[in-house]
Amino acid sequence: xxxxxxxxxxxxxxxxxxxxxxxxxxxxxxxxxxxxxxxxxxxxxxxxxxxxxxxxxxxxxxxxxxxxxxxxxxxxxxxxxxxxxxxxxxxxxxxxxxxxxxxxxxxxxxxxxxxxxxxxxxxxxxxxxxxxxxxxxxxxxxxxxxxxxxxxxxxxxxxxxxxxxxxxxxxxxxxxxxxxxxxxxxxxxxxxxxxxxxxxxxxxxxxxxxxxxxxxxxxxxxxxxxxxxxxxxxxxxxxxxxxxxxxxxxxxxxxxxxxxxxxxxxxxxxxxxxxxxxxxxxxxxxxxxxxxxxxxxxxxxxxxxxxxxxxxxxxxxxxxxxxxxxxxxxxxxxxxxxxxxxx
Length: 343
Description:
Blueprint: H1 11-25, H2 27-62, E1 65-67, E2 70-72, H3 79-82, H4 88-105, H5 108-124, H6 126-130, H7 134-139, H8 144-184, H9 189-194, H10 199-216, H11 218-230, H12 235-253, H13 263-275, H14 288-298, H15 301-304, H16 307-311, H17 317-338
Antiparallel strand pairs: 1-2
Helix pairs in contact: 1-8, 2-5, 2-8, 5-8, 5-11, 8-10, 8-11, 8-17, 11-12, 11-17, 12-13
């Protein structure tokens, strides 16, 4: 008789499978939402470019277009002619303007990311209890620690990585649209678009932003998962209204004056850290002096958002203190799930 041997599945393999499960169950929010947002951004950008070209063409044909205090009257819009007299400073200004538009055009996937991660965490553990599928998952050889950590890592790493990819695709799609427009109007995309702009610098910036987001969003993700594991119903009200009501009470009673602090400190460091951590770039509100210094010294968008500037957030005490609280919230969420039963 042949004996069939079953090899135990490693914890690493199990955790990888759990991550895949979270991705496939939430593919609409993790993948398609940022991609669609990027596509909408490209469509809106194209409409704006076409309207701008229409306005420039009318100005050029009517002789109302001025370059170096000289009237330019051309038959149509010739970008090669219009940019022939640009000096080094003009090209630098062009590059900075292009970088600003690249940032704005590729921002949409990150805006979607904030909402996707927020509501994903709110329902991540609550939905299993609401539809009673938690009984099925608890019957499998899956620990509560692995399950909760897979949901936390999906929110803190998987979703942001996909958002970065969507943002990069949107950025290069925007540059491709500009290249076609420039080429169609007598310009050279290599010298007018790809040369002055800094797309590769922004790719490096996005990649360096990932560890910052993971740590900065940790308290919000942990807070939402904790209430998702505890709430019998309406986890949104518990997770959102509790810190908001606390902020209102602190503001009206002026209790922070006892600690020589203002109520604004409570809103920024307590309410904001609990509810706004999933918003990409929210750490900028905690280091405005540093960013203003970078902008003042460089006057360059790419430098202001460089990898060094992004990683400078790791020096913020607020980041590490919040991360510690986030870990504590996740531990509480794990313990709550262990005692979870039917609603």
